[in-house]
Write a structure and sequence with these properties.
Length: 281
């Protein structure tokens, strides 16, 4: 196997175009597991770790925080992300262990595109946009169009995810996950809730309960038509529980080695209800 250690994005993009079977590696916390289990056997690896432009956090565009695909979780869990996008910092804190968080990245979470990826519900709830570059083109894709199935996305082989744009929202936001233990765990159900005070709405996205992340559009619009979210500062337990029940109805979980569909649905109803109450307590 040959490893190309790129220092510039163009070097990586050129190598990716030239080597049809090359695999990109950022932190390696997903890819090295795949290689060690012989699930993938790349003949060429392109390391992105030394590309500084992928490790930048930018706020040049008003109302947007743009996070480079190679920024590790250990950075995302602190400032300036913690204040601007608290749900993302929270999700980053739940990933693996300190060692995994020192290496793992948003680019890798999107590259793997598992419905259990902890940062993906945050991207869905915030309507994030994904920047993709090839050697001769670039495009920006909404997260809703990016993920197409379990470990599937619209990314083409010759494209590198360079950054993720997160709108900065005025209002409470949070991320919660349920797993078989407290730390070092892949979620069996997760949820990100964002209360957008300017638009007087609430958005919720679910992880690990369907082939893609699920935005609960019906529960969101039920809440918006039931309550005036622009003036309301508290929400009753009955309304929160009904919202949770409706969010769970929109999930599409399966039984697998981590949990049962029934438990996952129950977990979603509890997570959604709790997150909503936290947002309006
Ligand atoms: C012990 C352990 C615990 C874990 N716990 C969690 C957890 O709690 N939550 C969670 O979500 N994940 C968890 N993971 C999975 C993993 O850490 C995350 O998915 C992480 O975000 C992967 O990032 P990475 O930079 O290491 O990706 P890599 O392993 O480097 O890459 C992963 C995939 O993405 C592709 N890729 C990487 N960067 C790019 C890019 N810029 N453009 C296009 N494709 C790219 C690679 O080719 C590869 O296919 C865990 C893994 C381990 C080993």
């Amino acid at each position: 196997m040959s490893v190309i250690v790129a220092k510039e994005l163009t070097t990586a993009l050129t190598a990716l175009r030239e080597h049809g079977d090359a695999r990109l590696i950022q932190g390696g916390t997903d890819l090295m597991v795949e290689i060690n289990f012989n699930h993938v056997k790349p003949t060429t690896m392109i390391s992105l770790r030394d590309i500084k432009s992928l490790r930048m956090i930018r706020t040049d565009t008003p109302g947007i925080m743009s996070i480079g695909s190679g920024v590790p979780y250990s950075v995302i869990e602190g400032e300036p992300v913690l204040t601007a996008i608290p749900a993302l910092a929270q999700a980053a804190r739940t990933v693996g262990s300190p060692q995994i968080r020192a290496a793992g990245s948003l680019g890798g979470n999107l590259g793997t595109c598992s419905p259990a990826g902890d940062t993906l519900p945050v991207m869905f709830a915030l309507d994030a946009s994904i920047h993709l570059s090839a050697i001769d083109s670039s495009r920006v894709v909404s997260i809703h169009d990016f993920m197409t199935g379990v470990k599937r996305s619209v990314r083409q082989h010759d494209e590198i995810i360079t950054a993720i744009d997160f709108p900065i929202i005025n209002g409470w936001q949070g991320y919660s996950k349920v797993g078989v233990r407290n730390a070092m765990v892949i979620s069996v159900a997760s949820a990100c809730l964002v209360a957008d005070h300017e638009n007087a709405d609430v958005r919720i996205a679910l992880g690990s309960v369907g082939p893609t992340i699920i935005r609960c559009r019906a529960a969101e619009s039920w809440l918006k038509t039931t309550l005036d979210l622009s003036t309301r500062s508290t929400i009753s337990l009955d309304v929160a529980n009904e919202f949770g029940r409706r969010a769970a109805e929109e999930s599409s979980p399966i039984d697998d080695h981590r949990s049962t569909a029934q438990y996952r649905r129950h977990a979603i109803s509890v997570l959604a209800s709790r997150l909503l109450r936290k947002a309006y307590q």
